[in-house]
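Researcher: Good morning. I'm working through a list of sequences from a screen, and I'd like to move beyond sequence-only analysis. For each chain I'm collecting a predicted structure so we can compare shapes side by side. This is the next one on the list. No need for commentary yet; just the structure.
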Amino acid sequence: MNVWDVAIIGGGPAGLSAALVLGRALRSVILIDEDKPRHAAAHSSHGYLTRDGISPSAFRELGREDVRAYELVRMEHDTATGAKKEDDHFHIATASGKSYISKYLVIATGARDQLPPIPGIQESYGISVFPCPYCDGWEHRGEPLAIIGSSQSLFGYVQLIFNWSRDLSVFTDGASMLTLEQKQALQARGIALYEQPIKSLRSSGGQLEKIMLEDGQEIARRIAFLSDTGARDATTIPDELGVGREQDGQYETMEHGSTHIEGLYLIGDAKHYFTGLIGSASEGYEAGVAINRRLVEEDWV
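Model: Good morning. Structure tokens for this chain:
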């Protein structure tokens, strides 16, 4: 049976970057990707040098084009459904019934967002409701902005968004976790706080117009940022392989995305929930270099 040097599950910026590095290092790589990217709703991606403003789909296709140049890398459009480790090798099963064996395994499946169950939010997501101010804050600087959601980190998120616009309102969809001192800090800066439940978002063609509250108030807003997208793991394979969890629920990893499971690496949003385009690509490069180094050392034993 054919044994690949490395299997990569997930073909976003992290997985493609790792495949590129390993392909250039003359390593055989099987990359399995179901082509259901987390950022499918986004119209453009930002913050990646030389590619600022590129659409996510165009970025992925450019990455695939780069990887296709290396004959030892094979890309499969499929869904990895499970993996186990036997005799120092990983055995990966897919939805199409195929199976692959590899010496090393890289999980780069990203994360899945679970948006709050607010009527109208799906229609605006990626158009005028966003999760990342570094991705979309500049385009909407100075506009009437909203923050939707509440968590222990809400105050820090408010401070962050306030950097892009002083016309800011916060909607916590119920009682917030803000302290009295934090509420006073918002009030001192003219930031309106609405703790009433949200009834719905009103938009036209995806463009947010008003945030409707259960008490009948209608607050005009053009753009909203979510304080929490409910990010969850896109795959349970790390759990199946026995990877532990940190206190915040994310997987335990060590240097270069390695885990205590020998030969298993977690990178990108599969590791952090949110890494950003350039951060994910960087982690893919780092993991690829680390794995190649391990394979070189094995060749010299």
